[in-house]
Design goal:
CATH topology of the largest domain in chain A: Aspartate Aminotransferase, domain 2
Radius of gyration of chain A: 24 Å
CATH class of the largest domain in chain A: Alpha Beta
GO molecular function, one term (chains A, B): DNA-binding transcription factor activity
Family (chains A, B): In the C-terminal section; belongs to the class-I pyridoxal-phosphate-dependent aminotransferase family.
Keywords (chains A, B): Aminotransferase, DNA-binding, Pyridoxal phosphate, Transcription, Transcription regulation, Transferase
Number of domains of chain A: 3
Shape of chain A: globular
InterPro entries (chains A, B): Aminotransferase_I/II_large, HTH_trans_reg/aminotransferase, PyrdxlP-dep_Trfase, PyrdxlP-dep_Trfase_major, PyrdxlP-dep_Trfase_small, Tscrpt_reg_HTH_GntR, WH-like_DNA-bd_sf, WH_DNA-bd_sf
Helix content of chain A: 40-55%
Oligomer: homodimer
Largest interface: A-B, 57 and 57 residues
Pfam family, one (chains A, B): GntR
């Protein structure tokens, strides 16, 4: 996919002006600067400014007054945040495997507009740096690259990971890290290390659908606890689940839960860690989106940073930030290290040597933070664009999250709309989205969809968003 | 590790002469050709021939008669093949995890003489070709290498694998292949697709110890059926196990079972395939050593080539032949494809993109067969050397397998010797071996050890073998 640069530029200006208006820098009724002023100040052509003003006029945000100039007509407020569905702690039967497999298949197809894909667009990923490093690794480490790495993983990579975690207030060394094939294997090893078939596992609702599949495959039962887009999971709900059920483990994504983007505040994190400790329930942390914070001063803390006794199994990866295809993830299993190593050895022995070394060297060269800054900016740009177009394109009554990080928006459509039907409808237009139904074992989210921000935006994406909205409206029939 | 070429050369000549004598080309009492004749005929220096004759004289194989020349004094027969231990079909409790982990740790240590390691020595592996190909893949496929591969695996690699299997009489296409992280993951997916915790699984005895660990981790029970070094598994024994127990699956390594090198004859393979079909028991085939045949006209047939209904789950990898560190294996799951894909997706999503592409291109370039010929020759050379030195270095009463392929010798020591003690004793001399006790849940093999032939031989290895023998003799005390 290629960004048409001219297109992209004018959209940035429009976006900038919208921000000015929505943030109150220009008030309703106020006169906007002249086309020539904007052109000179923003270093863009007069044609570009004219185009941007015309687009804003079309949207009804500004209006031209003859022989006077452009004036602010109205603000475009972002959509309200979704309501928390009526939700009690509940136990559910898992059986949405087929829909999930269909979704995964369609999201993976080439040529789809990637509103369903949660991996950063490959144009944003550091493929040139990684190719250079891999080439140097193969030349320098020659025969070693051919051999098994230790079960626990490459020591250089483990050390680099531990240093990053120390910056996030986690007391870990390279010896505490176990390298896995992506965060998915980390989750798998965490559950295999803490549960037996038939056990109950507490998860957020909504939660990443692959976790539901993993639970089903391991013969585990999901106990869903409400996740609130603004505050995450409440310790009170967790406590209730712990008292009502015999719980073997608890999986939480404290930083930008997929799909609702929920961020658990630090004070609540501390409470939850203490609660799990005192109930002797292993707490499995999925932190794959923690590095993708956007409207925050710094990275939100992992639950692991509150862990004093090794009760937390921290899981993460570089799949969302460096490369999904390299399959390099990791876990800090705490007390479960020996068990996790034993299971890892009999599942696939150890991780690939060349990919571990390449990521390890990439971190060692200090390239990661600069790359993350670029990636966060690209994702944030796309999200802002989407938030601005959603009110225009989507049916009245639509709500959407305003996450402070992660790569997804969680969209609540009017009750009558079936998100799964919408998924199949937009697929015919070569657009992928994720239907809300797959993110829970309950029926709470059938009118939800998840839209991804993979760091890529152009007019085709804008038109795609318009199509999704139009098809959603069509479900409402003639009344709209 | 470096092969000292002079050393290596003379040992080859000695080896050649020994072969001539043992095969009856020179009979006991017969005069050997003069040093000068051998030097000219074999294109080696006179010093090399002198050295070889002196070594053979030291071993008592030939004798110098003054002013006449060298005469054959006696043949050195290889050791007899191990007795089949008294062995009934039995059900066992798995609990040798700790010893296995110790063995894996020591085998993986750098600087150990690799009699315990079953991966080809890295000097034999095609690291230069792979580095070149990987570099080209990263340049040509740029961004694609960063993305997820499909769950089933890279299509080019799957097609290449299916073509190789077609040559071995298997009716498969690329669509029947599922790429895995090594054969270990293939076995794991095969068992997860066919069993539930508590189920019974038939395995060979002895069997690869990682299979025992995998069974234990999955909560499965091992039913051991005797493996005979010369004929493999008998259908009668299998039938008996199937009638006595409720069997969920059966794992067999028909071609050069690790550790006893057993090769099941083709007629027996057909019988076994039919037996499993008629009992409706999925047959999991481990074929990682099939390409490493040595004293055979061609590759032995996989069980899969007898499969007409998809009941056989064929598992293999390139870890023993191209690179263990790349972690590229595969399975032909037959009827269990959908189930295996579902479990793969929730265990680690999919295999690494760059390593799959590199191995796929390596096969496409037609480099594999030439490499296999070289690898087989190197392994065979080492095995012949070991078989010739074993009678000299090891205690009387020792027996050893004479496998027609694979990379290991299975050595039965006199009953009084404890293979596990020997493992710890030789470790102090920086030598790794595998103790027999870990290859079964029974106590049948405590006086056995497994010695690997990884395609590497020099005087250090010879001295290492001598040390193992000496430490074994020491266990027998003063009577020897």
């Amino acid at each position: 996919m290629q960004v048409v640069s001219k297109d992209f530029k004018y959209q940035n200006l429009e976006h900038y002006l919208l921000d000015m208006i929505n943030s109150g820098r220009f008030n309703v009724g106020e006169k906007l600067p002249s086309l020539r002023d904007v052109s000179q100040k923003m270093h863009v052509s007069l044609a570009t400014v004219t185009h941007a003003y015309m687009e804003l006029e079309k949207k009804g945000v500004i209006e031209a007054r003859p022989r006077s100039g452009y004036y602010v007509r109205q603000k475009v407020a972002p959509l309200p945040i979704p309501d928390l569905p009526e939700h009690d702690v509940q136990i559910g039967k898992l059986s949405r495997t087929q829909l999930i497999q269909t979704v995964l298949g369609i999201v993976g197809e080439k040529g789809m507009l990637p509103f369903g894909c949660i991996c950063a667009d490959s144009s944003v990923l550091p493929h040139k740096a990684l190719a250079r490093i891999m080439n140097s690794v193969l030349r320098t480490h020659g025969q070693d690259v051919m051999s098994y790495e230790s079960i626990q993983g490459n020591p250089l990579l483990r050390k680099q990971i531990s240093w990053r975690m120390q910056e996030d207030d986690c007391r870990v060394t390279g010896n505490d890290v176990l390298i896995t094939f992506g965060a998915m294997e980390a989750l798998y090893l965490a559950l295999r290390s803490t549960t037996r078939p038939g056990d109950n596992v507490v998860i957020q609702s909504p939660t990443y659908f692959c976790f539901l599949q993993l639970l089903e495959n391991l013969g585990l039962r999901a106990i869903e606890v409400a996740s609130c887009p603004t505050n995450g999971v409440s310790p009170r709900d967790l406590d209730r689940a712990f008292s009502r059920f015999d719980v073997a483990a608890c999986i939480l994504a404290p930083n930008f839960n997929n799909p609702d983007g929920a961020l658990i505040p630090d004070a609540t994190k501390q409470e939850i860690v203490t609660l799990c400790e005192s109930n002797n329930i292993p707490l499995i942390e999925d932190d794959v989106s923690g590095d993708l914070y956007c409207d925050l001063e710094g990275r939100p803390r992992p639950l692991k940073s509150f862990d004093k006794i090794g009760n937390i199994i921290h899981c993460s990866s570089f799949s969302k930030t460096i490369s999904p295809g390299f399959r390099v993830g990791y876990m800090i299993p705490g007390k479960k290290m020996d068990k996790a190593l034993e299971i890892k050895a009999t599942t696939n022995v150890s991780c690939s040597t060349p990919t571990q070394l390449a990521i390890g060297k990439y971190l060692e060269e200090g390239l990661y933070d600069r790359h993350l800054r670029k990636l966060r900016r690209r994702i944030s740009d796309q999200r802002t664009h989407m938030q601005q177009y959603l009110p225009e394109y989507f049916p009245q009554g639509t709500r959407a999250t305003q996450p402070k990080g992660g790569g997804v928006l969680w969209v609540e459509l009017p009750k009558q709309i079936d998100g799964t039907k919408l998924f199949f409808d937009v697929k015919k237009h070569n657009i992928s989205i994720a239907p809300g139904a797959i993110f829970s074992t309950s029926e709470s989210f059938t009118n939800f969809i998840r839209l991804s921000c993979v760091g890529f935006w152009n007019d085709e994406m804008r038109a795609g968003l318009e199509t999704i909205g139009r098809l959603a409206k069509e479900q409402l029939g003639s009344e709209y």
